[in-house]
Amino acid sequence: MKRSIAIAAGIVVVLAVALTVLDRSPLRSLLTFRQVDDYPLYVMHLYGDYHFDNWLETGTQADAAVPFGPRPTAERWACTCFSAFGQPGQSILGRNFDWYTHPTLLLFTHPRHGYDSVSMVDISYLGFDTDEPSWSDRLRLLDAPYWPFDGLNERGLAVGMMAVPSAQAGNDSGKVTIDSLAAIRLLLDKAQSVDEALSLLGKYNIDWASGPPLHYLIADARGNSAVVEFVDGEMKVLRSERPWQVATNFVLSGYSPERARLQCDRYATAYETLEQAQGRLSQDEAMALLADVSQPSTIWSVVYDMKSGQIAVAMGHDYVQVHRFELGMKKE
Predict the structure, then answer these.
(1) Average pLDDT, stretch 140-154?
(2) Which pTM value belongs to this model?
């Protein structure tokens, strides 16, 4: 009997060690990789440490910039992002990403020292094409957390980026420099409100060397929203005074809402729709608005509900087949 008990205890110890090793192993993450749309769209959960805190200590290195790919032509430079808070019980961030036809990953991250989050990643910048990646190639997906194009975290903070003709960020020698997509990872991992996000961004220089200049729309579940731009070496913050906000591909600083609507048809359409609804858009209505302002180059349309953690994704203008996911939200 004692021997049987000892053997059973030994098996339990071995299993516990094995589970611990698996939990820390990249294999656990890679085993979650699956294809959900022929575009293609993949989904993966990444568990454990991707060493972002260590990376933040030094940030972007001059010899480590990764090319962002070809500069967009006018018809492809057409992203649209909006927030909407008027619908009771919902806080929406909607976003079209317009670019070249590239494979996409919906990435759930579960860091030990940050908030759980979900983000959309164009994995062509990790070397993938539209063919399903081999097992050996999938190891590159472990770098996907550094390439978020938009996303939502478990505290209800959401962010999207859009290319703009120009952005001049400061270059403070006393600050660490991070690249423009890692800035999104910073916010998803570390910020639970717009105010916290703005404070974090102010602590870093933003580098555009690996891609086009950007501005960001940041929103939270409390109903706050702000567009962040970089003009003449300063970070400009345009807070929304209404229960909605819109940004496309021009610098908003210096424009009134009326003048801004003259700069871009997509901006005007989104703004007028949100104004008429006073920001009262359901998730399905938000996706319908994204369809209205989509372009031939729209890769994905995504709707994040910052209260419920629900995510809706449409790939390549297929607004009939909308994929739905959920991020577990952590209440205060």
Answers:
(1) 97
(2) 0.89
